[in-house]
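[job 0417] fold request received: Bifunctional protein FolD
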Amino acid sequence: MGAALIDGKAFAAGLRGRVADAVPAFAAAAGRAPGLAVVLVGEDPASAVYVRSKGRAVEEAGMAGFEHRLPADTTQADLLALVATLNADPAVDGILVQLPLPPQIAEDAVIAAIDPDKDVDGFHVVNAGRLATGQAGFVPCTPLGCLMLLQDRLGSLKGLEAVVIGRSNIVGKPMAAMLTQADCTVTIAHSRTRDLPGIVRRADIVVAAVGRAEMVRAEWIKPGATVIDVGINRIDAGAGKTKLVGDVAYSEVVDVAGAITPVPGGVGPMTIACLLRNTLVAACRRAG
Ligand code: GUN
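[job 0417] inference complete; emitting structure tokens
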């Protein structure tokens, strides 16, 4: 057990507290609380759990939550009409449409319809473009949470070698852009990368976001590296039970890394904390 534990749960609680502390001053100046609209289409159980925890977090932060639950057979036109209404609603600072959406709805079309200045998920191409070009916008909550944990642990990231495993639009690509912005030397690795262990062994910072249980092994890790595990995989634990594990083989990597996030309790809690942070930022920017 060599590595320091990066306690995302504690950091997220602190961030949520700081956001909540800032809400009364905003409300006094604006005459209203910051508002987040969350849209859930259909009955996906995992999505329903996420949406419930987001609603609770919004309430605990003293913000106004607007929850919209639509049936699984909602048409794309109906969802686009709701997004247009939320775009025009002055009480709504942030809009989150929970993904995945049912198959009859094109996710890209819905994300493109959200006002980029209310896009607290940071998924709109305008915000992806702003991030890629170093302009202020909204960045996706999970990689933002990873960056905050890294900066809290390491201070300046300048000149460090970072390897991001995974190239999704929600985590891998924005993570790489944010680390580049923070002056890291960044490699994006993925399922087609040749000699993945050799590439990862160069890294001072490893961010694993591939969605494959315990794929990253101890031999891949440079001694002392900081390892951020974004994976949440449910695996068979025997005796009819399951357990949550990350993309990193924690029990062995913990002996090599300098610091590591656990699963659960690492990156996971940061996503909602960063959503609240983005909503407060959206509210402040919109209030001018
Ligand atoms: N589904 C899983 N994670 C997320 C998220 O961060 N935002 C949205 N909109 N949908 C998700």
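[job 0417] notes: The CA atoms of residues 1 and 95 lie 42 Å apart. The chain has a mean pLDDT of 97.
[job 0417] exit 0
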